[in-house]
């Protein structure tokens, strides 16, 4: 489909979704909201896509909600009306607890890994979106801020649940209360991002990682492991082990398991099908 405020491109089994309002540091709008969900749905349905990259055009990732949206909010605003915003799991996606079916929490239901390529400043709602990606890489020019406390707001859209699980309780409390700016090197120390790359080679590095996932790894394994990791957030250890035992038996019967053994023994590149 044709998009207005995002770019969507597929190459070498990797779909790249780019928030495309560079003159506004890709500030979030209702149009981006809907188009981002449509793009995630399109990537989910496309068997030719095995990995998704989410990034921003220009020098920023996402500066948060567009100020025109924030200034329009009042006690009766349609901005908070669930009838006018997308919700629910992605069609054809993972069967996860309903917690992952809310307005901004649906990324985990996408059955393919989502890489957050945080190329520059990210704030507020943009920070929330980045947290719901599966793996996060930052350029050395990226700057992070939760922003909410400096706008008279609160920890929105589940960030109070996700952030402590990623950086720990003390760091989450600091980042939320202060809304201070965190540069890429500190984000790496906190565990907020997986790696930091120089801006000059940033997207090349991100695409190289995505390419390895798309060509060297079983799509079925990635799909099941992503489901396991998000589902076990709500399970006791015993339940998680039992669930893994069931999935392990299923994997033994899969085509990807047979191919995983065969390509290793035959010393050749894998030809995984995802089945």
Written account of the structure:
The protein is built from 10 helices and 9 strands. Strand 1 and strand 2 (14-19) form a beta hairpin. The chain folds into 2 domains: 6-213, 2-enoyl-CoA Hydratase, Chain A, domain 1 (Alpha-Beta Complex); 218-266. It is of the alpha/beta class and 275 residues long. It starts with 5 loop residues before the first strand and ends in a 9-residue tail after the last helix.
Output the CATH homologous superfamily of the largest domain.
2-enoyl-CoA Hydratase, Chain A, domain 1
CA(first)-CA(last) distance: 28 Å
Strand residues, percent: 5-15%
CATH-derived architecture of the largest domain: Alpha-Beta Complex
Low-confidence stretches: 75-83
Number of strands: 9
Structural class: alpha/beta
Mean pLDDT: 92
Number of helices: 10
Shape from CA axes?
Answer: globular
**What percent of the residues sit in helical stretches (DSSP H or I)?**
40-55%
Query: Major beta sheet, specifics?
Result: 6 strands, mixed
Keywords:
three-stranded mixed sheet, single chain, 2 domains, alpha/beta, globular, six-stranded mixed sheet, 2-enoyl-CoA Hydratase, Chain A, domain 1, 275 residues, 40% helix
């Amino acid at each position: 489909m044709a998009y207005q405020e995002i770019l969507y491109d597929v190459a070498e089994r990797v779909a790249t979704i780019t928030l495309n309002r560079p003159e506004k540091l890709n500030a979030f709008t209702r149009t981006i909201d809907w188009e981002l969900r449509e793009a995630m749905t399109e990537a989910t349905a496309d068997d030719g896509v095995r990995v998704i990259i989410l990034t921003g055009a220009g020098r920023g990732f996402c500066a948060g909600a567009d100020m025109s949206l924030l200034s329009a909010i009042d006690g009766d605003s349609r901005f908070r009306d669930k009838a006018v915003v997308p919700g629910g799991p992605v069609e054809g996606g993972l069967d996860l607890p309903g917690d992952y079916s809310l307005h901004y929490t649906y990324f985990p239901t996408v059955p393919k890994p989502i890489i957050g390529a945080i190329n520059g400043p990210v704030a507020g709602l943009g920070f929330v979106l980045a947290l719901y990606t599966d793996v996060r890489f930052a350029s050395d020019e990226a700057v992070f801020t939760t922003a909410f406390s400096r706008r008279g707001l609160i920890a929105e859209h589940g960030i109070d649940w996700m952030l402590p699980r990623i950086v720990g309780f003390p760091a989450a409390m600091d980042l939320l209360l202060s809304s201070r700016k965190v540069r890429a090197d500190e984000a790496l120390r906190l565990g907020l991002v997986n790696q930091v790359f120089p801006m000059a080679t940033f997207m090349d590095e991100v695409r190289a990682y995505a390419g390895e996932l798309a060509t060297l790894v079983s799509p079925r394994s990635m799909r099941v492991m992503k489901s396991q990791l998000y589902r076990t957030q709500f399970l006791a250890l015993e339940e998680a082990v039992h669930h893994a035992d069931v999935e392990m038996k299923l994997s033994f019967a899969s085509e990807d398991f047979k191919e995983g053994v065969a390509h290793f023994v035959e010393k050749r590149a894998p030809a995984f099908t995802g089945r």
